[in-house]
Amino acid sequence: MDRVRYHDLYQLVEAEGLPYFARLNGRAEVELYLVFETVDAFSEQTRDAVSIEFKTYQNKLLAVIWTLSDPLQPLGFPLSFDIRSAEERYVALTILQQPFTVLHYLAFEEGQLTHIYSEAIHFSAEEVSRAKDMVRSLYDGNPASMPKAAEVREEETQTIPAMSLPDSVLQEMGMAFILQYKRMLATHGEEEAQHLLMSTVKQAVWVMRRHTRSEVRDSSFTVWAAEQGEQLYLVVTPSLSHLFEVVHMSEDEANPFSRFLMTLPDYVQTEDAAPLRLGAFPLLRYESGQLYHLELDEELQEHLAHLSRQAFPGASNPYK
Question: 3-class DSSP state for residue 165?
Answer without folding.
Answer: coil
